[in-house]
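CO-FOLDING WORKSHEET

Operator: S.A.
Ligand of interest: zinc ion
Run index: 411
Mode: holo prediction, single chain
Checklist:
[x] sequence pasted
[x] SMILES validated
[ ] output reviewed
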Amino acid sequence: MTASSDNITYTLCDTDSSIRAAVDRLSNATHLAVDLEGASLGQTGGTLCIISLKNAWELDSPNYLIDVLAFASEHERRLRPIYDLLESPNITKVLFGGCMDYCALYHDCHVTLSNVVDIQLADIKSRPLRGEGLDLQLRRLGEVFVKAAAKGGSSLSRKKKDQDGSWNGNEERQMFMQVHRLLGLRDCLREHSVGGVSVPKVDHSSWLTRPLPSTYLTYAASDLINISGLFQQFVAKGYITPILEEESQRYISIWNDRKPYPGEKFRNHAFLPLDIINYRHGGTSSTSRCKCNGCQRDLPEGCFPMRETWVHTVTSESSSGTRTGQCFVCRAVCLQRQKKERQHQSRRNRSFSSSYSYHYDYDYDYDEYGHDNWGACEALDFEIEDDFGDNPWADYFLTRPGIWGMPLPYY
Ligand SMILES: [Zn+2]
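OUTPUT RECEIVED:
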């Protein structure tokens, strides 16, 4: 069925013949824009509902929306021609933030998405090329990171250094240099001055509804058009480099050990995981690796605080066995969450103070990230809606520039 809504056309494929027609057309493409939709897509308990595909070089080409639910338990056989395209070494798949897409295909459909370029990653790699330095990189992360870097560490870490000499403020100042904030598709289009098409708002819990309302189908098709537009711009700017494919494959497959749980903070956040673009950062191929006790990834030593601290945490025994440290990104997740919790707390206390003249000292700087950050983070076990693809942090910061000073520049 081919239909149109708000001038966005799409072809819904829910029969064997419509799949054959789509594959006939798509198999001639060298680059396919790929985007998946679903309820809690890629997470434990989630369901893949739609696979969206289009020729990434032709903005006006058909937007094929494959209704996976229509094929029910037979999808592995009846959608095999589609899965062959996704696994094909001859067609490059263009994704935006494809980790959850990969998870859904890999864990639920036994399909290994390969030969990919992830343009969310290309955006991050383009930042230094656009003149962005550490200052702006930290500002993207938020005020609390800027302050920590400026001071060379939090008051707690300085105290720790005094006590046992195992923490170095310089190291702490450096620690967020490896941390990059991911942008959502909408903000990425804006930052790169790609017009794109407007995307309707949808409730993502309703992707299981059948028949799927046209708003949802328009949403899926719009994403395909926007991914393709951004890809073409990135090619023109020279941001799609040969090594990007290898980095993209590493990026999208980071959760191939298991799917993230809904709300799992170390696997659902808006920071680029480590060891993706600076592969084996901090060492050579023989560098020792350590399992992060946040994200559970095996990472090189250079992804953890300085060696003394690293050894200190690695050798700390807990009841469940040997504890390891947290990587810089997991520490950033903790710091970000602490900040958010303090903001909530501050709001609660401000309303309290208006009645009781109570002064609340709004200070991010104590108890930020000391040696036992794990415990500090676990104590803040509140749920927020994080979505890797849509990136609420981006909305949060870009729409509230007053929180941490000046708004980000757009290029
Ligand atoms: Zn980690």
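REVIEW:
The two ends are 39 Å apart (CA to CA).
Residues 266, 292, 294-295, 297, 326-327, 329-330 surround zinc ion (CB under 6 Å).
[x] output reviewed
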